[in-house]
Design brief:
single chain; about 300 residues; alpha/beta; UDP-galactose 4-epimerase, domain 1; 7-stranded parallel β-sheet; 13 strands; about 40% helix; Epimerase_deHydtase; NAD-dependent epimerase/dehydratase; NAD(P)-bd_dom_sf
Length: about 300
């Protein structure tokens, strides 16, 4: 059976690809390598270096391979870039997603599994922590707005054309292969800088709270969504909040870093606090996080140590 993974050379996507191949699926990867890397690619996947906005190429790929499942992870994934360049963000995160949805309908895709955001979708005025899916989204960045609009489009495509889908709203995903050079991915950025003995920057006062979920746990949620959770939205997080200052301390200890952080002005579009309630995923997908933050950080540091050798 063929499955299509967009963003399959990226951080999370490449891990999803590895697990699908391990489970015997034929995997087609579409990635324009704007943030993905060739070295992340599984050599048993069929790879197209293409942009999801390219309708003609997407038509060819869907016609040729007839994927039964689409895992849509390709995205402009930086909140900061979305704030500076909302049009660029929308081209990938909205227009690109719509191209995939239209092709999925046309070519009879069984199910569309969408990687959304729990971290950027609920906004600033959240009353309940950990936050359940019943909380009305009020995204404050173009990135969060784009992700939420695709959730709405999925509802439309399900109602209008009978497309089955599952939305996975991720907390802050971290782990091996996360890009330490972008503007997203604080764990990778801190780890790389600490191992190199460089300055570590914290934006704002460091009391921003995030829910950090390990990449292997996120991969498991994606595979469970193939058979469960039709036309539902799920938070994929740990229910545990960690401040950036606490994260700094944990990583400092693991890496043996000997400097203090350098505090910088806060960034636009960053929410103050985000912790996700995963009760619904536990009940309906049979999913819960298995890797603790301490354990996941050790595995991540180990990975970065090897890549820097």
């Amino acid at each position: 059976m063929n499955v299509l993974v967009t963003g399959g050379a990226g951080f999370i996507g490449s891990h999803v690809v590895d697990k699908l191949i391990e489970n015997g699926y034929g995997v087609i990867v579409v990635d324009n390598l704007s943030s993905g890397k060739v070295e992340n690619l599984n050599r048993n996947a069929l790879f197209y270096e293409q942009s999801i906005e390219d309708e003609e190429m997407m038509e060819r790929i869907f016609s040729l391979h007839r994927p039964e499942y689409v895992f849509h992870l390709a995205a402009q994934a930086s909140v900061a870039i979305s704030v500076r360049e909302p049009v660029r963000d929308a081209e990938t995160n909205i227009i690109g997603s719509l191209v995939l949805l239209e092709k999925s309908i046309k070519h009879g895709v069984k199910k569309f599994i969408f990687s959304s955001t729990g971290g950027a979708i609920y906004g600033e005025n959240v009353k309940v922590f950990p936050t359940p899916e019943t909380e009305t989204p009020h995204p404050i960045s173009p990135y969060g707005i784009a992700k939420y609009s695709i959730e709405m489009y999925l509802e439309f495509f399900a109602r209008e054309y009978g497309l089955k889908y599952t939305v996975l709203r991720y907390a802050n995903v971290y782990g091996p292969r996360q890009d330490p050079y972008g503007e997203a991915g604080v764990v990778a950025i801190f780890t790389e800088r600490m191992l190199r003995g460089e300055e570590v920057h914290i934006f704002g006062d460091g009391e921003y709270v995030r829910d950090y979920v390990y990449v292997d746990d996120v991969v498991r949620a994606n595979l469970l969504a193939m058979e469960k959770g039709d036309n539902e939205v799920f938070n994929i997080g740990t229910g545990r909040g960690t401040t950036v200052n606490q994260l700094f301390k944990l990583l400092k200890e693991i890496t043996g870093y000997d400097k203090e952080p350098v505090y910088k002005p806060p960034r636009k579009g960053d929410v103050r606090k985000s912790i996700l309630d995963y009760t619904k995923a536990k009940e309906k997908l049979g999913w819960e996080p298995k890797v603790s933050l301490e354990e996941g950080l050790k595995l991540t540091v180990e990975y970065f140590r090897k890549t820097l050798e």
